[in-house]
Amino acid sequence: RDILVQILNDEDRHMDELEELLDQIEQMTLPIFLTTQVG
Question: What's the rounded mean pLDDT across residues 4-12?
Fold first, then answer.
């Protein structure tokens, strides 16, 4: 059970990170966002 709770917490954190990236893409537009991710 503890392992499943840890996995769920990790996945929640991962989803938060992805949602933050999607918000950044929406604000910057994809081409500008991609230039910030290269190099």
Answer: 98
